[in-house]
Amino acid sequence: MRTPQVDRAEGMPERVRIYEVGVRDGLQNEENIVPVDVKAEFVRRLEAAGVETIETTSFVSPTWVPQLADAAELLTALGESARGRNRPVLVPNEKGLDRALEAGVGAIAIFGSATEAFAAKNLNATVDGQFDMFGPVAKRAKDEGLWVRAYVSMCFGDPWEGDVAPDQVVSVARRLMDLGCDELSIGDTIGVGTAGQVESVLDGLVEAGISLDTIAVHFHDTYGQALPNTLTALRKGVTIVDSSAGGLGGCPYAKSATGNLATEDLLWALHGLGIETGIDLPAMVGTSMWMSEQLGKPPASAVVKALGAPA
Ligand code: HMG
Ligand code: MG
Known about the structure:
This protein has 311 residues and is α/β, with parallel strands linked by helices. It has helices at residues 22-28, 36-48, 71-78, 94-102, 116-123, 130-143, 166-177, 195-207, 226-235, 263-272, 281-295, 302-308; strands at 17-20, 53-54, 57-58, 89-90, 107-113, 147-153, 183-188, 215-219, 240-243. It has one domain (17-308): Alpha-Beta Barrel (TIM Barrel). α2 (36-48) crosses α3 (71-78), α2 packs antiparallel against α11 (281-295) and α11 crosses α12. Magnesium ion binds at residues 25, 187, 189, 218, 220, 251.
């Protein structure tokens, strides 16, 4: 299988930690329920490809996200390997935390919104009110020794409110990190952001005292900006990038959201720059080809399409 020609560029990190969201963000939006054994096999194939960090599922309301109602079953099917600090699950409230703790997780992610509209649509809360949910969750999770990530959604534009000011993002991010979270992921939920915005938001976060080594970028690829925006973030000093196998993804509560940055497209760019990821590109392509057969639809990723096609 073809590999990218390697040429290092200045100002880029030596290594990037890829935070794989295909199993959670990728599948949450699928209408047809994916069987739990297929989800478990997906995780195992990602592990075999060398992916260290995999967000496996969400302990959210099964009425809100029926696709992930099998969260506890999936963790049972995966066994001990799903319980580490590198296998976070989404948790919105204490009910979700109870379920996650019962399943024995080692890491969770809370997920806030920078905008009122999305807080209402996704969490049935206000921007202020979401902290009433997340505060006790983060505190209890830290007391239990869990690793905690905080997402902020709609950091670069919102389908209902339009433009989003960087200050608004920074204020929500700061409040989430003040709950004691270990990592922050800034989400372009609907994939509209451009590189200058990425710089402004990152500058704002750093000014607010959030260290770059705790910041991840989470770009959906609706307008084809996910990869250029990621490279901009790397030049600014970010080293954690969220992506999804094959470019799966979307948010059931923001219809204009499409798939995340594809892990394979990211790997092609990073490996071409000589940046270590620990992930085997051909094995990832094989995994996404397999998953696309399971879902009965072609992969979104340009690299999977190019490398998966007969020579
Ligand atoms: P609500 O309806 O206000 O909740 O939803 P409630 O507290 O009134 O409870 C309603 C019912 O749900 C009750 O059951 C609860 O027990 C149950 P009933 O008494 O009617 O039988 N319930 C739960 N059941 C299981 N697990 C739970 C749970 N919580 C309540 N955790 C709530 C509020 C937060 C629960 C709801 O809005 C929700 O689940 N939202 C999650 C939506 C979601 O998962 N969205 C996608 C993830 S976010 C995303 O994709 C963005 C991201 O990728 C970053 C980016 O791209 O920007 C992270
Ligand atoms: Mg997302």
